[in-house]
Amino acid sequence: MSPMYDTILVPTDGSGVAGVAATQAIALADRFGADVHALYVREDEADEGGEIATTAVAEQAATADVAATTAVVDADGPVYRAILDYADDHGVDCIVMGTHGRTGLGRYILGSVAERTLRESPVPVVTVHEETVVDEDLETILVPTDGSDCSEAAAAHAVALAEATGASLHVVHVVDLGVLPVDESGALIEELQQAGQHALESVIDRAEDVSSVQASVLSGSPYRAIVDYAESEDVDLVVMGTHGRTGFDRYLLGSVTERVVRLSDRPVLTLDDHERT
């Protein structure tokens, strides 16, 4: 099988969370024999931090014997656009980036740069938090599915990752109890569970070459069920799809995916339904 990724981009601003992103990017690159590009987007000509930040990533990559390229570019518009333009110009097939730490309420903040990159990137984006622990072995992958085109694309990518790494694959469907009528008798729940089972079977059928597959229908709040499952099963990577298009031809990040990205302490890989392995 050809490598999943050849060129991995890690935008950096020299912060702690960018350091975690660099660790994740280098771990993936080492696993797939990929190169790492460390990118610093300078918004102010007086900003001299780019060389220090990118060199730190390159030095970290060198210790893992991973080839690294560094670049400092001036922002000609939004920072996320400079990231995506660089990715397009250099044949990047995966972006790894950090979000912006925690609020006082113990919830992760999804910074505007990360959010816009997630929404508009044509290649997979892996997000991490400052407290994310990167597992270099990538032994367990989780993919939630609802049977939509977007989740099917995510499932295909997750299956390919599991095949390439030998990781076990966990597939879950969550029945959202919050959308059911208060006086629901149970028949509708059973029907939704059966639909969930069909969605799981679709993924299981395509995962015949994966070493181990575990499928579950869960119930509750979808994002909370996914986050809790990832923690309880010690998942190394969550793979999820983003959602549809608006009338402005921009991708929307589904609320479930966005909340998982915000709240999970596991790396989360997101991709849209136009990304195929």
TrEMBL record:
Source organism, top-level taxon: Archaea
Protein name (database record): Nucleotide-binding universal stress UspA family protein
Organism expressing this protein natively: Haloplanus aerogenes
InterPro entries reported in the protein's UniProt record: Rossmann-like_a/b/a_fold, Universal_stress_UspA, UspA
Transmembrane portions of the chain: none
PANTHER family: STRESS RESPONSE PROTEIN NHAX, UNIVERSAL STRESS PROTEIN UP12
A Pfam family reported for this protein in Swiss-Prot or TrEMBL: Usp
Domain UspA: 4-129, 139-269
